[in-house]
Amino acid sequence: MQNFFICLRKNSQISFFAAMVRKEIEDETNSLTGRLKQISPVPIHLSIYSPNVVNLTLIDLPGLTKVAVEGQPESIVQDIETMVRTYVEKPNCIILAITSANQDIATSDAIKLSREVDPTGERTFGVLTKLDLMDKGTNALEVLEGRSYRLHHPWVGVVNRSQADINKNIDMITARRREREFFASSVDYRHLAGKMGSEYLAKLLSKHLESLIKTRMPGIACLINKSIDEIEAELHQLGKPVAIDSGAHLHTILELCCAFDLVFKDHLHGGRPGGDRIYSVFDNQLPHALRRLPFDRYLSLQNVRKVISEADGYQPHLIAPEHGYRRLIEVAVNYFRGPAEASVDAVHSILKELVRRSLAETQELKRFPTLQAEVSRAANEALERFREDSKMTTLRLVDMQSSYITVDFFRRLPQGNEKGGIPPAAAPIDRYTETHFHQIASNITSYIRMVSETLRNSIPKSVVHCQVREAKRSILDYFYVQLGQMKGNQLAALLNEDPALRERRQQCIKRLELHKSARDEIDSVSWS
């Protein structure tokens, strides 16, 4: 795409500018298509500013053709028609259907195509050229007066420069003067002279365009206001430009951290999905892990006999194998360490995932990838500290169960056994019979069930207290301390904005200014 901006002030300059523009257009066209009369869909934009021209945008399209000439591809006929259609099919386009006066109007490709894309004719203006080249004794009044082929808008006849005039560098001012003289002096067209010529055509089109704008202005104004709202919403999402002083930097960073913290807490409190997975750990994963502990295998008669015998040593127990009981219980309680650690790690993984989600959902942080990475690092380091504290506290709860055995539980067992018909432990029976070991295994199993139920309730309390509660209260506290120790350049580095977002904001600001300027321009004009 090539752009030319020309300002025309004096008539003496027009020829010079026209020659310069013509050469630039020819050079640009040749650079794109070569010198073999080919075409290119890439537009060349020429903007002319002058108090002597109407406010109009004119698109000069290649003429429709029926055959390819030497050097052109066979597809050029279809290529040109496709290119022309892309413009004339647009509902806001005004079509100039240009036809030679010395050609049968019924065979005009321009009229045929315009009828296809504009069947009502409201967008089509018929232009008849080469009126000065018609055979002597003939004229185009049948067409110009709308008798042979009527259009919605009146036909306009024009007389352009001939190739000889172009070769002689006849300027446009002279050409327009000759055109006016032709219509004024023509016996056939003098009664239409006021409505013929290129100057009249330009004014007619400008007036029609103004009429269209008036008709569509309410819709255009509505569209502009909608675009302004959309741009302002996008700018709000992109955020304001970053201030330059360190105090403002620190304030901005703290605001962004608070925004992340609110999103993270919203996940934990249920406002956003994810926090419910923590409850699932305690309600499903932990009970399932506790039920799968291999106590049946550990408290088998063979293992109980082995542990009791080893605990007795050379001196068999007298009444109850207390050392064996304690050893069996201590080892059995150690099995609970696995589910306890697994619960800690599962909640830790969920919290890490919630941090990742919260970072992604904190729109304000997306502007600053460096700060986003630092917040992620600080949050995950805090979660690691919380996990270590939680693991130590939770395992301590498990160890407590083996450190002190609830004696009352076993004191109540003989009474329950007597009610059930099982001989009390003090009865004179063989201490090493299968029934005796079975009774020991049953007693310890009952005790382990009680411990399991206790830990099922206390492990979630420990994990929530040490991990979830601390994450809600102080996930970025250590990072805040680090921020307070940073220098101005370090704070500025954290707010090193993504260049793509910065560029996007600048584009939005420019677009917003243009749209508001257009809105103000519309509001300042009376369209009644």
SSE topology:
Blueprint: E1 2-7, H1 11-33, E2 44-49, H2 76-88, E3 95-100, H3 109-117, E4 124-129, H4 141-144, E5 156-157, H5 163-167, H6 172-185, H7 198-238, H8 246-269, H9 276-291, H10 295-298, H11 301-312, H12 322-334, H13 337-361, H14 369-403, H15 407-419, H16 434-474, H17 477-484, H18 488-494, H19 499-523
Parallel strand pairs: 1-2, 3-4, 4-5
Helix pairs in contact: 7-19, 8-13, 8-18, 9-13, 9-16, 11-12, 12-14, 12-16, 13-14, 13-16, 14-16
Structure, explained:
This is Dynamin-related protein 1E-like isoform X2. One of its GO terms (cellular component) is microtubule. Keywords: GTP-binding, Motor protein, Nucleotide-binding. InterPro entries: Dynamin (IPR022812), Dynamin_GTPase (IPR001401), Dynamin_N (IPR045063), Dynamin_stalk (IPR000375), G_DYNAMIN_dom (IPR030381), GED (IPR003130), GED_dom (IPR020850), P-loop_NTPase (IPR027417). The chain has helices at about 10-35, 75-90, 110-115, 140-145, 165, 170-185, 200-240, 245-270, 275-290, 295-300, 300-310, 320-335, 335-360, 370-405, 405-420, 435-475, 475-485, 490-495, 500-525, and strands at about 1-5, 45-50, 95-100, 125-130, 155. The chain is mainly alpha-helical and about 525 residues long. It folds into three domains: about 1-55, no CATH class; about 60-195, Rossmann fold; about 245-415 and about 430-495, Four Helix Bundle (Hemerythrin (Met), subunit A) (Up-down Bundle), CATH 1.20.120.1240. α3 (about 110-115) links the parallel β3 and β4. α7 (about 200-240) crosses α19 and α9 packs antiparallel against α16 (about 435-475).
